[in-house]
Design goal:
Elements lengths: L1 H4 L12 H23 L6 H7 L3 E5 L3 E3 L2 E3 L1 E4 L4 E5 H10 L4 H22 L8 E6 L2 E6 L3 H24 L5 E2 L2 E2 L1
Parallel strand pairs: 1-5
Antiparallel strand pairs: 2-3, 4-5, 6-7, 8-9
Helix pairs in contact: 2-6, 4-5, 5-6
Length: 183
């Protein structure tokens, strides 16, 4: 909910709709993850390998990419099937969350893959709730989406992916994730 609350358009959402708007985005991310997992993750949860099989170009840059006060871990470029991974930032996130780099990178790649789905299949989640661009009294001008909803859905997708991966590990105790590879 914090992501949504930090969006510049948050205050334009009618208060009685906030929870429904959030739940709609989160549910969409979960549903898309379930479809992805059924189709692509039966025996392999390595997002790097899966995305490469799907034709993505994955570029790793050994940088910690910070713009303003936001750290970027990864970036999907619509139309190019390219994802840029900022490995130093992911390493910091992995260390903070006490996980291996490959595991953290897979979660981040799952998040970015959701943005690919938005651009190419399901449409922009940010457009599922339109609010006035400008409101003065009863007068409104234009409509805009809420960018944070895309992030909410992408986080739900990554969360569902990670939960399924953890269940996979429990069920397959001999399977170990090391450096991004399932062995």
């Amino acid at each position: 909910m914090i992501i949504l609350q930090n969006d510049a358009c948050y205050g334009k959402i009618p208060p009685e709709r906030v929870e429904d708007v959030f739940d709609d985005a989160w549910s969409l991310g979960e549903r898309e993850a379930e479809l992805f997992i059924r189709e692509h993750c039966q025996e392999d949860f390595d997002m790097l390998r899966i995305l490469r099989k799907l034709g993505f170009r994955i570029e790793e840059q050994n940088i910690d990419y910070i713009m303003g006060n936001i750290r970027y871990f990864c970036e999907y470029l619509p139309g190019k099937n390219q994802i840029t991974v900022y490995s130093k930032g992911i390493k910091l996130w992995a260390d903070t969350n006490e996980m291996e780099y490959g595991e953290a990178r897979n979660i981040i790649l799952a998040h970015e893959f959701f943005h690919y789905l938005e651009a190419n299949r399901i449409g922009w989640v940010s457009k599922r709730c339109l609010v006035p661009m400008l409101k003065i009294g009863k007068f409104t001008l234009g409509k805009t989406g809420i960018a944070a909803l895309s992030e909410v859905a992408a986080n739900a997708f990554a969360n569902e992916y990670y939960s399924a991966y953890m269940n996979f590990l429990k069920e397959n105790k001999d399977t170990v994730m090391t450096g991004g590879n399932v062995t």
